[in-house]
Every structure is written in C-alpha cells, then in structure tokens.
Design a protein that fits this description.
Length: 428
Amino acid sequence: MTLYLDQLHGSLADPLLDSMTFLNEITDRHPEAISFAPGRPFEGFFETDRVAEYLDVYVEHLRSERGLMEDQVRSTLFQYGPTKGIVAELIARTLANDEGLAVAPEALVVTVGAQEGMVLVLRALCADRDDVLLVSSPCYVGVTGAARLLDISTVPVPEGDPAAVVNAARALRAEGRHPRALYVVPDFANPSGVSLPTAVRRELLAAARAQGLVVIEDNPYGFFTRTGRTRPTLKALDEHRVVVHLGSFAKTCFPGARLGYVLADQEVVAPDGGVTLLADQLAKLKSMTTVNTPALSQAVIGGLLIRHDFRLRAANAAAVAHYAAGLSTLLAELERTFPAAERAAGLGVSWNQPEGGYFTVLSVPFRADAAAVRRCAEEYGVLWTPMADFYPGGGGEQRLRLSSSSLTVAQVREGVRRLAAFIRAEVG
C-alpha cells in the first residue's frame, strides 16, 4: 500500500516538525561539533547507580510509611496503576516546600512528561473549532506543535505584555472566535530566556481573569537562577484558580524518567450540577491515550523526592551553580568577543541578558536559517538553533538561540570562539 502525505493529517507536512528532525540529523552528522542547540540538562550530574537506590527508597516507603503488604507493593510497581498516578502526594509535599503551594494531591495528574500534560489540557479546554489558544511569542514549539496536532488555532501575543493579551482576546471575540487559554513560561523561557517581573505576572493574571482565559503556566526552568533572584510562580500568585500549572522533572531530576504533572484545581460543573476537578477530567482523557504513567518512572522519581526530603531546590544546588556559570561565561565571552565599541560601529550583533535558565538569544545581520546552521557546523564545528520556528506569527529570521546547559565552561568558551569566527565570516 502506498500512502500519500497530502492524505494524512496536515501537521505531518508542517515545517515545524521538520525543523526538529533537521537539528537531530545535523547533530548526528557532526558529533564533534560544540552544540549550543539542545535544551537538555548537563549529564555530569547523572549517576547510574542512583536509579536503583531511588527505587529501593520508594519501595521502602510503600512498606514502612504506607504499610503495604508485599503483594500490594508488587502490584503497585508491576501492574497498571491509577490514571492520575501513584506519587501525587509526594509531589504535593515537594511543591509546598519548593514553591509555597498548598496543593491537594487529588488536583494533580502525573503525566508522561510535561508534553503529555500540554496535550491533555489543550484537548480539554478547546472543544470548538473556533476556540483559540493565545501563546507568548516567541514560543516553545512543543505547545504550538501540540495545538497543531489537535487542530487548535493559535494566536501569538508579545511575550510579557498583558495589554496585548487583552487586545488579542477582544479582537478574537469581535471575529466570533473564542479565546480560551494563554500559554506562558514565566521563568527563563524557552527560547527567549526571559523572566517576567512579579508586577507583570500579577497584571497578566488580572488580564486573563478579566478576559475569561485559563493561564497555562509551564515551569521547567524556575530553579535555575543566575542572579540568585527568584520570583513566585503564577500559580503561587493565583487567587482565583485561573492557572493550570505544568511541571516537569526532566530538568530538575533527569529527562529519561519522562515524568511530569499537571496541577489543575479548577472546579468543573456538569449539566446535572455535579462538581469535579479539572484534574479528574484530564484523567479521563489520559485513560484513552497513555492509560497511565509508568509506575517504575514514578517510583524512581518518588524515591528521589523522598531521599531529598521533598526539597528539589536544595537538591539542585550544584546544577543551579553549573547553569549559572555556563550562562555567565557565555555572556562574558560574547561581550569580550564582540566589544561594545565594535557593536556601536555597526556590527549588527546583539544579545539579551537572561537572569537564569538555559537560553540566550543572539541577533545577527544575516539570515540565521537551516542553511546557515549547516555552514556553521561543517566549516566551524559549532551548532545552534534558528529562532524563526519559535515565532508562530513570523519573525526571528535573524536571531539564533544559544543553550549553554549541556556544556562545560571550557566548551562554552571554545564554542563562542568558533561561533564568532562564523559570524564575522557571514558579516564579511
């Protein structure tokens, strides 16, 4: 049988999906290159023996703290489990310590990474073809890609601009469409590195409430401050249950566990007057997709949380220091390599100053596209990510994203040296 692409779902022909495949392929083709492309944790913190240790800790927790018999322990680890997960109570205790959030375990759904959480939330909230998701622009491609798979329309709004959210929602209603939710990464966002001031967070929540929008807060990078300054999550500021909070253990523990969660404490009223939590409705959807999140992954992360006394901020102290050092080195090397006087003379190179996280955005005076990445990898041995794919409404063609998270300080320095040689050649 021959299948034709134009007869399959339209998302499969979307250049957005091809862009991610391209980066993976070119990375495999140039394994010796220094790569500023992947937004992944530093592997120096991973210890193989810890996986078994954390699993043992969780099993002991089941026996001693929960009082389960051996057949119950075996069933918990090896059988299909509750759709909402088996470690929600442990996650709730961790959120109380790390974020100051008073979370009822029943308001949590443990997911296969935050990506599944996005799909579940979007599917639940957007019921009509005229329902629209607002996204901060530039925007993480995972959420725009998920919306594309679900045939949900997205409308970009400038990052950190509450007035633009209000204007976009009003404009959509004037067209007869339904703005349903706003997706935002308030801390050290992917791809921009931007962190929203607390005052802007409050204004954003007020704007969303006034416009009847659910705020989908994605928070994978919040721990990783470069300056020591931390801000409350949107959920911590949420007084009216406007925010659905997506969390992930990919960056704070390890991505191979593929474990995330959704905090969805909004009340849902049925036609008969019955009231449930949005988390319960998400669990219904999950039961028809992944059925449940693997118990072994939950057990390992659960054991890690127990071992670190339900305090992941403290457990990530070394990682916070590493990412801060890498990001500070990147910014310092860019400043040294492209001094202010040269930039003022018209070089056309500039960058932002993220307060933390993984990402820095560099503006250049040429088209930073896939062809440029290929030239840079082949001739200079360094990789980066084009920014254009992160702009749903277009833009970013002369910007590139640099991620310093997976590199050592020495690799960052050498990578900037190679990147600078490429940029000067392109400018010349």
